[in-house]
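Before drawing any conclusions, I looked closely at one protein's amino acid sequence and its backbone structure tokens, quoted below without any editing.
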Amino acid sequence: MSPKSDPRPVRIAPSLLAADFTHLAQSLASIESEADLLHLDIMDGQFVPNFSFGFSLLAALRPLTRLHFDVHLMIREPERYIEDFAAAGAQTITVHVETCPHICRTLEQIRATGARAGVTLNPGTSLAQLDAVLELADQVLIMSVNPGFGGQHYLPAATGRIRRLRERIDALGLSLPIEVDGGITTGTAPIAAAAGADILVAGSAVFGSPDPGAAIRALRAACRPS
């Protein structure tokens, strides 16, 4: 079945990185009834040129929301902290192939905690790097910007990467969702969805709106076939 005729609804994962950190409880409440997941970008200032937050903040937020914690580790040596993030409430933990010399072992480590194992790569990394791990992963993340900062524009080359990955997953007969992160707006969301994306991460498009819940509904509506 081609992506354009696929009836699966696209899920929206607002990125906490774009929220107002002085009012996080209110930010969570504003998306609680509309979001499908909560995306949490963990950055160490080494693998990417920015810092964000750690597992202590996840643990503090966990009692405040029912949303699934979709944690994206943009850090070096992620295997050192996987148990900590799982204990803090992470339900999906995604790591980069660029930071994991033993990526198969790292995905198994994530699964051993009870969390879903995700794998991702930067825009300049070949999709071939995923070939050996697709059957070990629970989710694949395609970066549609160079990671490290919010508010960037969607890279057009990401569309072809999403489409090729969807074709590869379907050819293997896997039930593996594709998540896309970076530059997602009502203009780019339907492009990514038509190429085969299942989950769209949106930061500024949601939390930069005066009504984050309505912004999520608009993103979801934009992906529906006309």
